[in-house]
Amino acid sequence: MKVKKDKVKLITLGCSKNLVDSEFILAQLKSNDIEIVEDEDLAENVIINTCGFIEEAKQESINTILKAVSRKNSGKLKGVYVAGCLSDRYKSDLEKDIPEVDMYFGATDKPQTLIGILNELGVDYKKNLVGERSQTTPKHFSYLKISEGCDNPCSFCAIPIMRGMHKSKPLQDIVTEAQKLASKGVKELIIIGQDTTYWGFDIDRRRRISEVLKAVSEINGIEWIRLMYAYPSRFPEDLIGTIRDLNNVCNYIDIPIQHISDNVLKSMRRGITKSNLVGLLEKLRRDIPGLALRTTLITGYPDETEKDFDELVDFVKEFRFDRLGVFTYSHEDDTFAATLPDRIPRKEKLSRQKQLLDVQKEISHANNMNMIGKNLKILIDRKENDQYVGRSYLDAPEIDQEVLWGVKI
Ligand code: SF4
Question: What is the CATH number of domain 8-129?
Protein backbone atom coordinates (compact mmCIF):
# COMPACT_ATOMS: atom_id res chain seq x y z
CA MET A 1 0.00 0.00 0.00
CA LYS A 2 1.43 3.38 -1.08
CA VAL A 3 1.96 5.64 1.98
CA LYS A 4 0.85 9.20 1.31
CA LYS A 5 3.87 11.39 1.78
CA ASP A 6 3.69 15.03 2.64
CA LYS A 7 3.78 17.50 -0.24
CA VAL A 8 6.97 19.53 -0.47
CA LYS A 9 7.76 22.99 -1.82
CA LEU A 10 11.47 23.58 -2.58
CA ILE A 11 12.47 27.25 -2.67
CA THR A 12 15.83 27.97 -4.34
CA LEU A 13 17.53 31.29 -3.68
CA GLY A 14 20.84 32.66 -4.98
CA CYS A 15 22.95 31.48 -7.90
CA SER A 16 22.78 28.81 -10.58
CA LYS A 17 25.08 26.63 -8.46
CA ASN A 18 22.40 26.52 -5.78
CA LEU A 19 19.85 25.73 -8.46
CA VAL A 20 21.81 22.66 -9.51
CA ASP A 21 21.95 21.51 -5.88
CA SER A 22 18.17 21.89 -5.66
CA GLU A 23 17.68 19.85 -8.83
CA PHE A 24 19.54 16.94 -7.23
CA ILE A 25 17.32 17.23 -4.12
CA LEU A 26 14.18 17.31 -6.32
CA ALA A 27 15.22 14.18 -8.24
CA GLN A 28 15.63 12.29 -4.97
CA LEU A 29 12.33 13.56 -3.54
CA LYS A 30 10.41 12.62 -6.70
CA SER A 31 12.00 9.17 -6.84
CA ASN A 32 10.61 8.67 -3.33
CA ASP A 33 7.09 9.52 -4.52
CA ILE A 34 7.10 12.83 -2.75
CA GLU A 35 4.82 15.26 -4.54
CA ILE A 36 6.57 18.53 -5.35
CA VAL A 37 4.22 21.49 -5.37
CA GLU A 38 4.84 24.92 -6.86
CA ASP A 39 2.18 26.64 -4.81
CA GLU A 40 3.42 27.10 -1.22
CA ASP A 41 -0.18 27.08 0.04
CA LEU A 42 -0.45 23.42 -0.98
CA ALA A 43 2.80 22.37 0.69
CA GLU A 44 3.04 20.51 4.01
CA ASN A 45 6.81 20.89 4.16
CA VAL A 46 9.04 23.64 2.81
CA ILE A 47 12.75 23.27 2.00
CA ILE A 48 14.62 26.55 1.53
CA ASN A 49 17.95 26.38 -0.31
CA THR A 50 19.46 29.66 0.87
CA CYS A 51 22.09 32.11 -0.38
CA GLY A 52 24.62 33.73 1.97
CA PHE A 53 26.79 35.62 -0.54
CA ILE A 54 26.14 39.31 0.13
CA GLU A 55 23.90 41.45 2.38
CA GLU A 56 20.85 41.65 0.10
CA ALA A 57 20.92 37.92 -0.62
CA LYS A 58 21.24 37.10 3.08
CA GLN A 59 18.28 39.34 3.88
CA GLU A 60 16.16 37.68 1.20
CA SER A 61 17.03 34.25 2.63
CA ILE A 62 16.13 35.31 6.19
CA ASN A 63 12.83 36.85 5.04
CA THR A 64 11.96 33.64 3.21
CA ILE A 65 12.71 31.56 6.32
CA LEU A 66 10.66 33.89 8.54
CA LYS A 67 7.71 33.74 6.13
CA ALA A 68 7.78 29.94 6.16
CA VAL A 69 8.14 29.83 9.96
CA SER A 70 5.14 32.12 10.44
CA ARG A 71 3.11 29.78 8.22
CA LYS A 72 4.28 26.85 10.37
CA ASN A 73 3.38 28.72 13.56
CA SER A 74 -0.11 29.32 12.16
CA GLY A 75 -0.45 25.57 11.49
CA LYS A 76 -0.29 25.91 7.67
CA LEU A 77 2.98 23.98 7.47
CA LYS A 78 4.25 20.85 9.22
CA GLY A 79 7.98 21.32 8.63
CA VAL A 80 10.54 23.93 7.53
CA TYR A 81 14.01 22.75 6.46
CA VAL A 82 16.83 25.14 5.59
CA ALA A 83 19.90 24.30 3.48
CA GLY A 84 22.46 26.15 1.38
CA CYS A 85 25.05 28.85 1.99
CA LEU A 86 23.35 31.00 4.63
CA SER A 87 22.60 27.88 6.68
CA ASP A 88 26.19 26.73 6.29
CA ARG A 89 27.67 30.07 7.29
CA TYR A 90 25.40 31.09 10.18
CA LYS A 91 24.04 27.73 11.42
CA SER A 92 24.51 28.29 15.16
CA ASP A 93 23.13 31.88 15.02
CA LEU A 94 20.11 30.73 12.99
CA GLU A 95 19.43 27.80 15.34
CA LYS A 96 19.39 30.33 18.19
CA ASP A 97 17.48 33.15 16.43
CA ILE A 98 14.92 31.09 14.46
CA PRO A 99 14.51 27.85 16.48
CA GLU A 100 11.16 27.02 14.79
CA VAL A 101 13.06 25.64 11.78
CA ASP A 102 13.06 21.82 12.02
CA MET A 103 16.59 21.37 10.68
CA TYR A 104 19.45 23.45 9.31
CA PHE A 105 21.79 21.79 6.80
CA GLY A 106 25.17 22.85 5.40
CA ALA A 107 26.01 23.70 1.80
CA THR A 108 29.11 21.64 1.35
CA ASP A 109 28.38 18.18 2.77
CA LYS A 110 26.31 17.20 -0.30
CA PRO A 111 25.17 13.62 0.16
CA GLN A 112 24.83 14.01 3.92
CA THR A 113 22.74 17.15 3.51
CA LEU A 114 20.58 15.41 0.97
CA ILE A 115 20.27 12.24 3.03
CA GLY A 116 19.52 14.34 6.10
CA ILE A 117 16.70 16.20 4.37
CA LEU A 118 15.25 12.98 2.97
CA ASN A 119 15.44 11.20 6.30
CA GLU A 120 13.71 14.16 7.94
CA LEU A 121 10.95 13.67 5.36
CA GLY A 122 10.91 9.95 6.09
CA VAL A 123 12.35 8.76 2.77
CA ASP A 124 15.58 7.17 1.53
CA TYR A 125 18.56 8.43 -0.46
CA LYS A 126 18.70 6.55 -3.78
CA LYS A 127 22.35 5.86 -4.67
CA ASN A 128 21.43 4.79 -8.21
CA LEU A 129 20.30 8.35 -8.92
CA VAL A 130 23.78 9.89 -8.76
CA GLY A 131 24.03 12.48 -11.56
CA GLU A 132 20.24 12.55 -11.88
CA ARG A 133 18.62 15.95 -11.67
CA SER A 134 15.04 17.12 -11.88
CA GLN A 135 15.35 20.08 -14.21
CA THR A 136 13.86 23.41 -13.14
CA THR A 137 15.18 25.45 -16.08
CA PRO A 138 13.34 25.42 -19.43
CA LYS A 139 13.93 22.00 -21.06
CA HIS A 140 16.36 23.25 -23.74
CA PHE A 141 19.08 24.66 -21.46
CA SER A 142 20.68 23.59 -18.21
CA TYR A 143 23.53 24.50 -15.89
CA LEU A 144 26.37 21.98 -15.47
CA LYS A 145 28.29 22.48 -12.22
CA ILE A 146 31.79 21.03 -12.64
CA SER A 147 33.28 21.84 -9.23
CA GLU A 148 32.52 22.98 -5.71
CA GLY A 149 34.35 25.53 -3.55
CA CYS A 150 37.27 27.83 -4.37
CA ASP A 151 41.00 28.11 -3.57
CA ASN A 152 41.32 31.77 -4.56
CA PRO A 153 41.99 34.32 -1.77
CA CYS A 154 39.79 37.19 -3.03
CA SER A 155 39.63 39.52 -0.06
CA PHE A 156 35.92 40.43 -0.34
CA CYS A 157 34.52 36.95 -0.93
CA ALA A 158 32.87 34.65 1.63
CA ILE A 159 32.24 31.79 -0.79
CA PRO A 160 35.28 29.71 0.28
CA ILE A 161 33.99 30.04 3.87
CA MET A 162 30.60 28.56 2.84
CA ARG A 163 31.56 26.20 0.02
CA GLY A 164 35.05 25.16 1.14
CA MET A 165 38.17 24.66 -0.95
CA HIS A 166 38.00 23.79 -4.65
CA LYS A 167 36.92 20.25 -5.49
CA SER A 168 36.67 19.20 -9.14
CA LYS A 169 33.76 16.90 -10.02
CA PRO A 170 35.18 13.74 -11.67
CA LEU A 171 35.13 14.02 -15.47
CA GLN A 172 33.08 10.83 -15.87
CA ASP A 173 30.40 12.17 -13.48
CA ILE A 174 30.26 15.43 -15.44
CA VAL A 175 29.87 13.53 -18.73
CA THR A 176 27.24 11.18 -17.30
CA GLU A 177 25.23 14.12 -15.98
CA ALA A 178 25.53 15.99 -19.29
CA GLN A 179 24.50 12.89 -21.27
CA LYS A 180 21.40 12.50 -19.07
CA LEU A 181 20.51 16.15 -19.66
CA ALA A 182 21.10 15.81 -23.42
CA SER A 183 18.89 12.72 -23.53
CA LYS A 184 16.09 14.87 -22.06
CA GLY A 185 16.41 17.41 -24.86
CA VAL A 186 18.89 19.92 -23.44
CA LYS A 187 20.59 21.81 -26.29
CA GLU A 188 22.59 24.36 -24.31
CA LEU A 189 24.85 23.55 -21.35
CA ILE A 190 26.12 26.40 -19.19
CA ILE A 191 29.35 25.39 -17.46
CA ILE A 192 29.50 26.77 -13.89
CA GLY A 193 31.61 26.58 -10.73
CA GLN A 194 33.22 29.19 -8.51
CA ASP A 195 36.36 29.09 -10.72
CA THR A 196 35.75 26.91 -13.79
CA THR A 197 39.27 27.53 -15.17
CA TYR A 198 40.72 25.80 -12.11
CA TRP A 199 39.11 22.43 -12.95
CA GLY A 200 41.54 19.56 -12.48
CA PHE A 201 44.10 21.49 -10.41
CA ASP A 202 43.17 19.62 -7.22
CA ILE A 203 43.55 16.33 -9.14
CA ASP A 204 47.00 16.72 -10.73
CA ARG A 205 48.01 20.41 -10.34
CA ARG A 206 46.96 21.18 -13.94
CA ARG A 207 44.10 23.40 -15.12
CA ARG A 208 42.30 21.06 -17.51
CA ILE A 209 39.03 22.84 -18.24
CA SER A 210 39.69 22.24 -21.96
CA GLU A 211 39.29 18.50 -21.35
CA VAL A 212 35.86 19.11 -19.81
CA LEU A 213 34.74 21.22 -22.77
CA LYS A 214 36.06 18.63 -25.26
CA ALA A 215 34.31 15.75 -23.45
CA VAL A 216 30.99 17.61 -23.21
CA SER A 217 31.22 18.83 -26.80
CA GLU A 218 31.23 15.20 -28.00
CA ILE A 219 27.79 14.52 -26.51
CA ASN A 220 25.06 14.15 -29.13
CA GLY A 221 22.46 16.85 -29.15
CA ILE A 222 24.46 19.51 -27.29
CA GLU A 223 24.58 22.49 -29.66
CA TRP A 224 25.85 25.21 -27.35
CA ILE A 225 28.33 25.02 -24.47
CA ARG A 226 28.89 28.25 -22.58
CA LEU A 227 31.74 28.89 -20.15
CA MET A 228 30.95 30.99 -17.05
CA TYR A 229 33.10 32.06 -14.04
CA ALA A 230 36.52 31.92 -15.68
CA TYR A 231 39.23 33.34 -13.43
CA PRO A 232 41.68 35.82 -15.02
CA SER A 233 44.90 35.06 -13.18
CA ARG A 234 46.82 31.99 -14.34
CA PHE A 235 44.31 31.62 -17.21
CA PRO A 236 44.98 28.30 -19.00
CA GLU A 237 46.34 29.24 -22.46
CA ASP A 238 45.06 26.08 -24.21
CA LEU A 239 41.51 27.15 -23.38
CA ILE A 240 41.68 29.86 -26.05
CA GLY A 241 42.13 27.33 -28.85
CA THR A 242 39.52 25.00 -27.36
CA ILE A 243 36.85 27.71 -27.37
CA ARG A 244 37.87 28.91 -30.86
CA ASP A 245 38.07 25.48 -32.50
CA LEU A 246 35.16 23.50 -31.02
CA ASN A 247 32.03 24.31 -33.05
CA ASN A 248 29.51 23.79 -30.29
CA VAL A 249 31.48 25.77 -27.69
CA CYS A 250 30.13 29.34 -27.84
CA ASN A 251 32.68 32.08 -28.54
CA TYR A 252 31.58 33.49 -25.23
CA ILE A 253 33.48 33.81 -21.94
CA ASP A 254 32.21 35.11 -18.61
CA ILE A 255 35.39 36.29 -16.82
CA PRO A 256 34.71 38.43 -13.69
CA ILE A 257 37.59 40.93 -13.28
CA GLN A 258 35.99 42.87 -10.38
CA HIS A 259 38.21 45.95 -10.96
CA ILE A 260 41.07 47.30 -13.10
CA SER A 261 43.20 49.62 -10.96
CA ASP A 262 46.37 48.02 -9.63
CA ASN A 263 45.76 49.53 -6.21
CA VAL A 264 42.35 47.82 -5.89
CA LEU A 265 43.33 44.56 -7.63
CA LYS A 266 46.19 44.23 -5.13
CA SER A 267 43.99 44.94 -2.12
CA MET A 268 41.36 42.52 -3.47
CA ARG A 269 44.10 39.85 -3.70
CA ARG A 270 43.13 39.05 -7.28
CA GLY A 271 46.64 37.83 -8.12
CA ILE A 272 46.87 39.83 -11.34
CA THR A 273 48.03 43.31 -12.41
CA LYS A 274 46.21 45.73 -14.71
CA SER A 275 48.64 45.24 -17.58
CA ASN A 276 48.46 41.42 -17.39
CA LEU A 277 44.68 41.58 -17.17
CA VAL A 278 44.35 43.91 -20.16
CA GLY A 279 46.87 41.77 -22.02
CA LEU A 280 44.77 38.65 -21.41
CA LEU A 281 41.47 40.29 -22.39
CA GLU A 282 42.98 41.70 -25.60
CA LYS A 283 44.48 38.30 -26.45
CA LEU A 284 41.13 36.57 -25.93
CA ARG A 285 39.45 39.09 -28.23
CA ARG A 286 42.26 38.84 -30.81
CA ASP A 287 42.48 35.04 -30.88
CA ILE A 288 38.78 34.09 -30.68
CA PRO A 289 36.78 35.55 -33.63
CA GLY A 290 33.48 37.20 -32.68
CA LEU A 291 34.15 36.59 -28.98
CA ALA A 292 31.48 37.84 -26.57
CA LEU A 293 33.18 38.90 -23.33
CA ARG A 294 31.14 39.23 -20.17
CA THR A 295 32.56 40.52 -16.92
CA THR A 296 31.52 41.58 -13.44
CA LEU A 297 32.76 44.59 -11.45
CA ILE A 298 32.51 45.72 -7.82
CA THR A 299 32.07 49.38 -6.84
CA GLY A 300 32.79 50.92 -3.46
CA TYR A 301 35.45 48.45 -2.30
CA PRO A 302 37.07 49.87 0.90
CA ASP A 303 40.36 50.80 -0.78
CA GLU A 304 38.78 52.19 -3.96
CA THR A 305 39.72 55.88 -4.30
CA GLU A 306 37.93 58.28 -6.67
CA LYS A 307 41.00 58.05 -8.90
CA ASP A 308 40.69 54.24 -8.95
CA PHE A 309 37.02 54.52 -9.83
CA ASP A 310 37.69 57.03 -12.63
CA GLU A 311 40.30 54.61 -13.97
CA LEU A 312 37.65 51.86 -13.98
CA VAL A 313 35.11 54.06 -15.79
CA ASP A 314 37.71 54.99 -18.43
CA PHE A 315 38.62 51.33 -18.90
CA VAL A 316 34.98 50.24 -19.35
CA LYS A 317 34.49 53.05 -21.90
CA GLU A 318 37.64 52.02 -23.76
CA PHE A 319 37.52 48.22 -23.66
CA ARG A 320 33.76 48.00 -24.40
CA PHE A 321 32.75 44.65 -22.88
CA ASP A 322 29.91 42.92 -24.68
CA ARG A 323 28.11 42.12 -21.44
CA LEU A 324 28.67 43.66 -17.99
CA GLY A 325 27.33 43.20 -14.45
CA VAL A 326 28.13 45.55 -11.57
CA PHE A 327 27.76 44.76 -7.86
CA THR A 328 28.18 47.16 -4.94
CA TYR A 329 30.74 46.05 -2.35
CA SER A 330 29.23 44.13 0.62
CA HIS A 331 31.21 44.06 3.90
CA GLU A 332 31.21 40.30 4.58
CA ASP A 333 32.13 38.87 8.02
CA ASP A 334 35.30 36.79 8.29
CA THR A 335 36.65 37.96 4.90
CA PHE A 336 39.99 39.79 4.73
CA ALA A 337 38.26 42.91 3.41
CA ALA A 338 36.10 42.94 6.56
CA THR A 339 39.25 44.01 8.44
CA LEU A 340 39.32 47.20 6.35
CA PRO A 341 37.09 50.18 7.22
CA ASP A 342 33.97 50.07 5.00
CA ARG A 343 34.45 53.79 4.41
CA ILE A 344 32.49 54.37 1.17
CA PRO A 345 28.85 55.29 1.93
CA ARG A 346 26.12 53.07 0.44
CA LYS A 347 24.80 56.03 -1.57
CA GLU A 348 28.22 56.51 -3.20
CA LYS A 349 28.57 52.74 -3.91
CA LEU A 350 25.19 52.82 -5.70
CA SER A 351 26.02 56.01 -7.60
CA ARG A 352 29.28 54.45 -8.88
CA GLN A 353 27.36 51.30 -9.86
CA LYS A 354 24.86 53.44 -11.80
CA GLN A 355 27.63 55.39 -13.55
CA LEU A 356 29.17 52.17 -14.86
CA LEU A 357 25.83 50.70 -15.91
CA ASP A 358 24.95 53.92 -17.75
CA VAL A 359 28.26 53.74 -19.64
CA GLN A 360 27.54 50.11 -20.50
CA LYS A 361 24.02 50.92 -21.68
CA GLU A 362 25.51 53.21 -24.36
CA ILE A 363 28.01 50.53 -25.37
CA SER A 364 25.32 47.81 -25.55
CA HIS A 365 23.10 50.03 -27.67
CA ALA A 366 25.93 50.78 -30.10
CA ASN A 367 26.86 47.07 -30.24
CA ASN A 368 23.25 46.14 -30.97
CA MET A 369 23.02 48.73 -33.74
CA ASN A 370 26.10 47.10 -35.32
CA MET A 371 24.20 43.80 -35.38
CA ILE A 372 21.52 45.11 -37.75
CA GLY A 373 21.64 43.11 -40.98
CA LYS A 374 23.67 40.26 -39.41
CA ASN A 375 22.31 36.66 -39.39
CA LEU A 376 22.42 34.97 -36.02
CA LYS A 377 21.37 31.53 -34.81
CA ILE A 378 18.77 32.08 -32.06
CA LEU A 379 17.80 29.63 -29.33
CA ILE A 380 14.11 30.31 -28.58
CA ASP A 381 13.49 30.40 -24.82
CA ARG A 382 9.74 31.13 -24.86
CA LYS A 383 6.79 32.62 -26.69
CA GLU A 384 5.16 35.78 -25.32
CA ASN A 385 1.86 36.69 -26.98
CA ASP A 386 2.67 36.44 -30.69
CA GLN A 387 6.40 36.96 -30.49
CA TYR A 388 9.30 34.65 -29.73
CA VAL A 389 11.96 35.50 -27.15
CA GLY A 390 15.37 33.92 -27.49
CA ARG A 391 19.11 34.36 -27.28
CA SER A 392 22.09 34.33 -29.58
CA TYR A 393 25.49 32.85 -28.66
CA LEU A 394 26.27 36.32 -27.23
CA ASP A 395 23.77 35.90 -24.39
CA ALA A 396 23.65 33.65 -21.35
CA PRO A 397 20.18 32.99 -19.92
CA GLU A 398 18.80 35.10 -17.12
CA ILE A 399 21.71 37.60 -16.99
CA ASP A 400 22.31 38.85 -20.56
CA GLN A 401 20.20 40.34 -23.33
CA GLU A 402 17.34 38.67 -25.19
CA VAL A 403 16.37 38.69 -28.86
CA LEU A 404 12.74 39.43 -29.70
CA TRP A 405 11.60 37.72 -32.86
CA GLY A 406 8.45 38.63 -34.73
CA VAL A 407 8.38 42.19 -33.35
CA LYS A 408 7.25 44.82 -35.86
CA ILE A 409 9.68 47.82 -35.30
S1 SF4 B 1 37.21 33.34 -7.41
FE2 SF4 B 1 35.11 33.93 -7.03
S3 SF4 B 1 34.34 32.43 -5.58
FE4 SF4 B 1 36.57 32.31 -5.55
S5 SF4 B 1 37.19 33.64 -3.86
FE6 SF4 B 1 37.29 34.83 -5.77
S7 SF4 B 1 35.29 35.84 -5.92
FE8 SF4 B 1 35.09 34.19 -4.43
Answer: 3.40.50.12160
